[in-house]
Design goal:
By secondary structure, the chain is α/β, with parallel strands linked by helices. The protein has eleven helices and nine strands. The protein starts with 9 loop residues before the first helix and ends with a strand. Methylates the class 1 translation termination release factors RF1/PrfA and RF2/PrfB on the glutamine residue of the universally conserved GGQ motif.
């Protein structure tokens, strides 16, 4: 970006930024250039497209150059702009948590289909809550429910509390730091979890945005990727209310082994929902 001088146009910045991101093998470089420049200028992408000859002020140029350099090093976009969309929510995001992904919305869809009577869910639990994405999305859809979210990382729990406040759900959510369900009592109508499920040896081979910039605690599922499911299996039977259901996110190829773990703990697999890529992603469980 050394060729960009103060007062140069939006169009020139976008053109050069697209070239930088393309050279760095960033997917959708033109789109990402617009996202970064709109964030630096405090405007909408549509505004950039509407007036490509508009000048970019010195302060916006400085912010943009710094963000562009970081994105070319594969720092995730959500970390650079500080937020990510999930379901109907806008969530704060930082390196202490996984960035919410569209695939995880499959769990919300399955939960809503499982409980078409929205008043039937009054107590929600999200184990490994991260940003609070699953818990808060379901609280928004089950208006009479109160939810508890637990994360082993205190920074993640604090971020989830901030997201509850940001989305007007703070009075219906308790976000706690803890080791899975160890400190919990009582029973819940709906239990959600997106646990770490990547095999330890596979993490270095993930795309750099994930392997280098997302927390290993939220990725590493142990040697076979199933450690967290074993922990969940030991807790879910005592936490599910009568008629309650659990919805767990799965990694690719994990449906059969996770179902076997859950059956061994006295839980009954009730179906699995595929994500938009055709991967079995959301496993529905009930008590036997």
């Amino acid at each position: 970006m050394s060729g960009c001088e103060p007062g140069e146009s939006v169009g020139a910045f976008l053109c050069q930024a697209g070239q930088v991101l393309r050279a760095a093998a960033v997917e959708a470089p033109r789109l990402e250039a617009r996202l970064l420049l709109a964030h630096a200028m405090g405007c909408r992408q549509e505004d950039l497209l509407r007036d490509p000859r508009a000048p970019v002020g010195p302060e916006a140029q400085q912010r943009f150059r710094a963000a562009l350099s970081a994105r070319a090093r594969h720092v995730p976009m959500a970390h650079l702009i500080g937020s990510a969309g999930f379901w109907t929510l806008d969530l704060l995001s930082d390196p202490s948590t996984l960035i919410p992904r569209a695939d995880t919305e499959t769990l919300v869809e399955l939960a809503l289909d499982t409980f078409p009577d929205r008043s039937s869910v009054t107590r929600l639990l999200d184990l490994g809550t991260g940003t609070g994405a699953l818990l808060l999305a379901c609280l928004a859809e089950f208006p009479g429910a109160f939810g508890v979210g637990v994360d082993r990382n205190p920074r993640a729990a604090a971020l989830a509390r901030a997201n509850a406040a940001r989305n007007g759900l703070a009075d219906r959510a308790a976000l706690l730091a803890g080791d899975w369900a160890d400190a919990l009592s009582g029973r819940f109508d709906l239990i959600l979890s997106n646990p770490p499920y990547i095999e330890s040896s596979s993490i270095p081979g993930l795309m750099p945005e994930v392997a280098l910039h997302e927390p290993a605690l939220a990725l590493d599922g142990g040697a076979d990727g199933l450690d967290a499911y074993r922990a969940l299996a030991s807790a879910l039977p005592r936490l599910l209310a009568a008629g309650g259901k659990a919805v767990l996110e799965l990694g690719q190829g994990q449906q059969a082994p996770v179902e076997a773990i859950m059956r061994g703990a006295g839980l009954r697999p009730l179906g699995c929902r595929e994500d938009l890529g055709g991967v079995p992603r959301a496993l529905l469980l009930g008590a036997c």
